[in-house]
Amino acid sequence: MTLEKPLKRAVLRSFPPLESVMAYVDTEIASQPDCWRRAARLAAESAPALPRHGERVAVVGCGTSWFMAMAYAALRERAGHGETDAFQASEFPAGRRYDRVVAITRSGTTTEVLDLLGALRGQPTTLIVGDPASPAVALATDPVAMPFADERSVVQTRFATSALALLRAGIGEDLSAVAADAEVAVRAPLPVVPDRIEQATFLGRGWTVGLAHEAALKCREAATFWAEAYPAMDYRHGPISIAAPRRLVWAFGEIPEGLADDVAATGAAFVHNRSSCVYATLDRWAAGRKPLDPMADLILAQRFAVALATTRGLDPDAPRHLTRSVVLA
To answer: pTM (2 decimals)?
Structure first.
């Protein structure tokens, strides 16, 4: 197992101490550029524990971790590293054989993940976990701990993206530019004003479908806000019917031809980091590098969700009906 000392806090130069002005989740969101760099280094150190080229792999998680599994599965297959499936941990197909199962869990205490790892005893399993002392560690053949990305918040942000950063680095991606994009995303103005939006729909294609689902979940968790997510190509097969003025459509990654015009015709706001005028200011923040990597774009969506919460008078560190880990009786 590879362990690192946890980050005590993130500091942005030219800003006041984050703890004095931000919720826990704000501080954790702002720390993501450094976390991603550390995750990339950890991937090199932990290479024997990560999926090998050509292995048939399943990736599992719950909630946010499941959405990161979806993103990684699409990226790994696109990179030609082998067949990769993503499952919600409770829906893993019993009896189906994989060369390796990767489980993502921040706490290492999630019931469905523990149950699955227990059922897979004797098979190669990689565990990506925030807490190295959690019970999941003893159940996996190859645990990879990321305490530097663990979180105090209920709402996951940096652990999830750092897990995805680790896995992206594990398939050979250079994350230096991605982390630089994250530096932009933690500082740049939000592309929309939260109090002018009454509903949001997030769209993705390929690996960014998982990011779209995660962005919508952040809005629901942090702000009890009506948010949905779909594959971008499927959006015009029904979901576009709810688009209207004061509603938002936010797309990650590549978008289908004509989608922006179709959304504009409904009166809804359209956000996409290649075509939306609201991203024009990114030039001066990113020194001409655009568009942002979709994972960095997700940081903007995380910040949007937190801003929605505060706009609605809610505490993003205390979301309704949620705890840091789902432990079932």
So the answer is: 0.90
